Amino acid sequence: MIADKSKLVDSFEMRIADINTADLEQLHALSIGVGWPHRGDDWQFAREFGKGVVALDEAGRVMGSAMWFPYGEHFATIGLVITSPRLQAHGTGHWLMDHVLAQLAHRNLGLNATRAARRLYRSLNFTPESVVAQCQGEASLPPEVDIPSGTELRPLDTADLAAIAELDNEAFGADRAALLTRLLPARGFGLTRNGKIAAFSFCRPFGRGHVIGPVVAANDADAIAVIRLHVAEHTGEFLRLDTREKSGAFSDFLSHCGLSVFDTVTTMSRGRPWLSVRESWPSGTPKTYALAGHALG
Ligand SMILES: CC(C)(COP(=O)(O)OP(=O)(O)OC[C@H]1O[C@@H](n2cnc3c(N)ncnc32)[C@H](O)[C@@H]1OP(=O)(O)O)[C@@H](O)C(=O)NCCC(=O)NCCS
Asked: Of 187, 201, 278, 281, which sits most exposed with the smallest number of CB within 10 A?
């Protein structure tokens, strides 16, 4: 009897492991497999800062991932949830999320869901709140714009940490001082008014080029002032910025700089509503003009 040369294997056992035990190249291959731009360094940053799990097959290969990023005691974001394409729609995503949620039982949660993941998160009681536009492209020379009168623009340094963490907390709704501390070696600008930081921005290498974010400001003019120099410094290079601003001067400015909408994700929350509360606040309240990243919020 001649044995079949191929055999359909549609089920094999997987186990959960800490993401820090996973091979970085395999994590990188996992995200490339779903068309994401992350570099090995981006994964390394995520796992040094956050926590996570991987799904390993019997041979120890990474077939899935899920991460979470605690901010303060009561909130966390979830991200980098991936199932290898050949395993999708077999329950792995749900299984990974169950592990994540078990670690975060008493926290309010936020995430930015791709189209592929929306159904998964809805079934886990996440509620859609807002849409994030992933704006990117080859940056063109930004239009000349004066900074708002009565303000000064300057590079950020470590002495600014407490002030930017406070501003970010007001905009984001949770303490991200630990994240901002890690980002501080990146290029950052602060806009001061009466000697006090009123807006700030960071720009760091990520994916195909650089990403601008987080950006916190109380109005479009301040937000433009803190990102303009980043765009100027990366003119002709690949640049990305994730924002919830759909229209207005900030959104127009991005278009003029060659950053057009490439895709969108949906911000969802579980537990206490997250953004809907902040979006109803009076104008002049600091808000997040650009995300630190889809996973980081
Ligand atoms: C999103 C993702 C992680 C889901 O993983 P998965 O292993 O397929 O998830 P599951 O098999 O547990 O399915 C979860 C739910 O999505 C549904 N689903 C899975 N694939 C689907 C598809 N192609 N079309 C429609 N629904 C689908 C399932 O029916 C299930 O719904 P239910 O909970 O109502 O039964 C996976 O599709 C993926 O890695 N996508 C690319 C990366 C990505 O977008 N990650 C999300 C980041 S926020």
From this structure: 281
Do 129 and 267 touch, CB atoms closer than 8 A? yes
- The count of domains in the chain is 2
Pair (155, 89) in one structural domain: no
Query: Which amino acid, residue 151?
Result: T
Same domain, 87 and 142: no
> 220-266, pLDDT tens digit by residue?
999 999 999 999 999 999 999 999 999 999 999 999 999 999 999 99
To the question of pTM greater than 0.85 for the whole model, the response is: yes
Atom of ligand 1 nearest to the CA of 64: 39
Tell me the CA–centroid distance for residue 99 and ligand 1, in Å: 16
State the residue range of the domain holding 219: 135-290
| Residue ranges lining ligand 1, Cβ < 6 Å | 34, 81-83, 88-94, 113-114, 116-117, 119-120, 123
CA dist 149 → 44, 80, 192 (Å): 41, 41, 11
What's at 71, amino acid-wise?
A: Y
Tell me how far apart the alpha carbons of residues 256 and 89 are, in angstroms, rounded to a whole number.
40
- Domain presence at residue 93: yes
Q: Is residue 261 domain-shared with residue 174, that is, in the same domain?
A: yes
Give the atom of ligand 1 at the shortest distance from the alpha carbon of 89.
Answer: 11
Nearest CA to ligand 1 atom 31: 120
Kindly state whether residues 30 and 142 are assigned to the same domain: no
> 91: CA distance to ligand 1 center in Å?
8
Among 67, 89, 106, residue at a domain's last position: 106
Q: Angle at CA 110, nearest 5°, toward 102 and 188?
A: 125
List, as one string, the DSSP characters of 183-212.
HTTSEEEEEEETTEEEEEEEEEEETTEEEE
